[in-house]
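Thread: S-adenosyl-L-homocysteine complex, take 2
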Amino acid sequence: MFRNAVELSHFYAAQAAGPGGVCIDATAGNGNDTAFLAGLVGPEGKVYAFDVQQKAIASTKKRLEDRGLQERVRLIHDSHARMGLYVRELVDAILFNLGRLPGSDRTVYTKSCATIAAIEAGLGLLRRDGLLCIAAYWGDPICNEEYREVYDYLKGISPRQAEVLFHEYINEPHCPPTFFAVHKV
Ligand code: SAH
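Output below.
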């Protein structure tokens, strides 16, 4: 009955963005979220999608082309920490799906330093009432460290700047990802 972290991201993004909107996928990966956002904003909208792995950019490009969505998406092969260099307009929603690209190089994963810099940049780009969503993994020590640092960072945000909501399944055995929704006020 409850949605998982990725479905929650989509649910919340749809509250903030619609046709003609502007969104950011901070971790393009295999392009699942990018394609979802591209559908949400429609032909008049725009999505910026970042990834540091060429393989992820290629896989996202393919997914978009298969669905005829590539025209409304700008794929950027760079760190999300530098999103402010590429995005020069206010945005409605920003998604992060942290961790590693499934089936890919295990040594490439999101790291708290860049993730937190990107969240900070993203909060600057978000319009008032916009939403920033994060699916965060915690089942192994590497992910767990990032998850804790992101949690602490978000906990420290002034409530005058944003409301921060946290979802967690507390009785599941396989460490499903947790979810943060940050609403800019
Ligand atoms: N854990 C998710 C997938 C996450 S994919 C799942 O299981 O479905 C995370 C993506 O973030 C990867 O493709 C990785 O290359 C990318 N990434 C890592 N560091 C990044 C950074 N600094 N900027 C942009 N993308 C980054």
